[in-house]
Write a structure and sequence with these properties.
The complex is a heterodimer of chains A (489) and B (95). By secondary structure, chain A is an alpha/beta fold. Helices cover 36% and strands 12% of the residues of chain A. Among the domains of chain A are: 253 residues, Amidase signature (AS) domain (Amidase signature (AS) enzymes); 79 residues, no CATH class. Chain A is built from 15 helices and eleven strands. In chain A, the strands form two sheets. Chain A has an eight-stranded mixed β-sheet, sandwiched between helices. In chain A, helix 8 links the parallel strand 7 and strand 8. Chain A is globular and about 65 Å long. With 95 residues, chain B is mainly alpha-helical. Chain B has a domain of 39 residues: Histone, subunit A (Orthogonal Bundle), CATH 1.10.20. Chain B is 36% helix and 4% strand. Chain B contains three helices and two strands. Chain B has a two-stranded antiparallel ribbon. In chain B, strand 1 and strand 2 form a beta hairpin. Classes of the chains: A alpha/beta (489), B mainly alpha (95). The interface between A and B is large, with 72 and 51 residues.
Chain lengths: 489, 95
């Protein structure tokens, strides 16, 4: 068996089922590792050892360990702090919710607990998931375990760093414009954003509701498939949750790739990406051809408009969603104010960080009287053009591949002074969210400074099993996903 | 177009976010940077294109009009900044 911190979830599951290992022992191993290593990365921002061990004891006693329909029972994971967890602080990376202890669990949290998984704690993130570097967190930036002078990506940067440092075998993430895939790429992990509507948004603090989607982050495609089996499913409490028959996302993992048609969008292979990223991505595509896949050039002519369209739509939705933080029902209230409006304005000014305020202001402006048609409606029309490009492209291919991020992880401060430069970090991931498509990132090599490079796979609507098959077959042939920072072994 | 300080003040008021005079100028510059970036959308011909409001076409579900929630007022109010007798307290709004 592989050492426990590097073990695939299936191996952990088998060891637990054979009673070679208890859930309590496994949780303790990771809790001790978190105590020892987390101060160097700032990935975990809430822990509760007693609650974790109580969950582990319950898993050991539950009869779920070793049961066929709960293969994840007894395995620990950690949640991005955007998911409401009953009895644990849920901060969303913000001063606004610094003292918020959720009275209920998110659907995803319920589902994974129901599968018998054990919660190790809550993970740092960009404030309200707005950022691509984890530098906007009220609780301080997360550091990339491959090089602590660099960002882990964002917004699910805590999730990515925690897995990369082997502080948890798996984590939840959310992806509104690339927030699972970009940090997965920058930290050398596998992460998947499902088709919009596949996973319930109930209890997941809203950023941009027409784009937000939760997904798994782990070391491999197989691990992600097992986690997605537990996370996905209809939930009446999310009005956009899709009523579809349950899928087994592991069903096609072992199918060979002969005949798989891979689309390479011309627009993703232009001047935008760094040479080291290009070399690793092209080598991965060569490996896919060896595995029997064929590659075909496709075009997504409007994809260049995805970042500007997103920065109209996402802030517009955010300005509406975040109006709920008024200092009345929950969250921060300013200590001094003169009247109700002053209380709102001061609570929000003091409770939100700079990037969140910027996006609320932009969103308010593009929705305001006289500008709605010019900005918001225009962006929604362009969103349709972007989605239509994918419909055309998928007539010629089964999956689309390209880079996840234009560069490897960058240094702290490199992009934080210029919001637009930071927004362009997500240039290859945002179109997927606008179209509602599933996408994933998996490690495909190392670039400048020995930093991981991510390969992005975009599937057609509900094409998760196909993407996971493509990723798993690659991971059987290449071992990039098994690498971890040497000094953390 | 470019935002003036007065525009920024109006947007901040609509957003209920207080900006100090010092913050207002920095915010104006940043917002103008972002608006300059999204300006490229205006050049796209979108005649006859239906706006796409959501990632998937779904119809709002209806449910039977029955009570499904339990009463958890005390739990929900426990996280509020200020409550009294089951009510949320705010500054006086009606004189």
């Amino acid at each position: 068996m592989t050492d426990l911190i590097n073990a695939p979830l299936r191996e952990l599951s088998a060891a637990l089922a054979a009673r070679k290992l208890s859930a309590v022992e496994l949780a303790t191993l990771f809790l001790d590792r978190i105590d020892r290593l987390n101060p160097g990365f700032n990935a975990f921002i809430a822990q509760d050892r007693e609650q974790t061990l109580a969950q582990a004891r319950a898993a050991d006693a539950s009869g779920k360990v070793g049961a066929r329909d709960t293969p994840l029972a007894g395995i620990p994971l950690a949640h991005k702090d955007i998911f409401c967890t009953r009895g644990w602080r849920t901060s969303c990376g913000s001063h606004m919710l610094e003292n918020f202890v959720s009275p209920y669990d998110a659907h995803v949290v319920e589902r994974l607990a129901g599968a018998g998984m054990v919660t190790l704690g809550k993970l740092n993130m960009d404030e309200f998931a707005m950022g691509s570097s984890n530098e906007t967190s009220y609780f301080g930036p997360v550091k990339n375990p491959w090089d602590t002078a660099r960002v882990p990506g964002g917004s699910s940067g805590g999730s990515a760093a925690a897995i990369a440092a082997r502080l948890t075998p798996a984590a939840t993430g959310t992806d509104t414009g690339g927030s699972i895939r970009q940090p997965a790429a920058l930290c050398g992990l596998t992460g998947l954003k499902p088709t919009y509507g596949a996973v319930s948004r109930y209890g997941m603090i809203a950023f941009a509701s027409s784009l937000d989607q939760a997904g798994p982050m782990a070391k491999s495609a197989e691990d992600c498939a097992l986690l997605l089996n537990a996370m996905a499913g209809f939930d009446a409490r999310d009005s956009t949750s899709l009523e579809r028959p349950a899928e087994d996302y592991t069903r096609d993992l072992e199918q060979p790739l002969a005949g798989l048609r891979i689309g390479m969008p011309r627009e993703f292979f232009g001047d935008g990406m760094d040479a080291d990223v290009r070399a690793a991505v092209e080598a991965a595509l060569a490996e896919y051809r060896k595995l029997g896949a064929t590659t075909v050039e496709v075009s997504l002519p409007n994809s260049g408009l995805s970042v500007p369209a997103y920065y109209v739509i996402a802030p517009a939705e955010a300005s509406s969603n975040l109006s709920r933080f008024d200092g009345v029902r929950y969250g921060y209230r300013a200590p001094e104010y003169t009247d109700l409006n002053d209380m709102y304005s001061k609570s929000r000014a003091q409770g939100f960080g700079a990037e969140v305020k910027r996006r609320i202001l932009i969103g308010t402006y593009v929705l305001s009287h006289g500008y709605y048609d010019a900005y918001y409606l225009k962006a929604q029309k362009i969103r349709r053009l972007i989605a239509a490009d994918f419909v055309e492209a998928f007539k010629q291919c089964d999956v689309i591949m390209g880079p996840t991020s234009p560069s490897v992880a960058f240094a702290f401060g490199a992009k934080s002074a210029d919001p637009v430069q930071m927004y362009l970090s997500d240039i290859y991931t945002i179109s997927t969210n606008l179209a509602g498509l599933p996408g994933m990132s998996l490690p495909c090599g190392f670039g400048q400074g020995g930093m991981p490079v991510g390969l992005q796979i975009i599937g057609s609507w509900f094409g998760e099993a196909k993407m996971l098959q493509a990723a798993h077959q690659y991971q059987k042939a290449a071992d990039w996903h098994t690498r971890m920072p040497e000094n953390l072994k | 177009m470019s935002l003036t300080q007065e525009d920024v003040s109006r947007i901040a008021l609509l957003s209920r976010i207080e900006l100090s005079p010092a913050e207002r100028e920095a915010t104006r510059e940043q917002l103008n940077g972002i608006l300059g970036f999204i300006e490229q959308l205006q050049a796209v011909d979108t005649a006859g294109i239906e706006p796409m409001a959501h990632a998937v076409d779904v119809v709002q579900r209806l449910r039977p009009d029955v009570v499904t929630e339990s009463d958890r007022r005390a739990d929900f109010q426990a996280v509020a900044p200020e409550t009294e007798a089951g009510l949320y307290l705010v500054p006086r709004v009606v004189e």
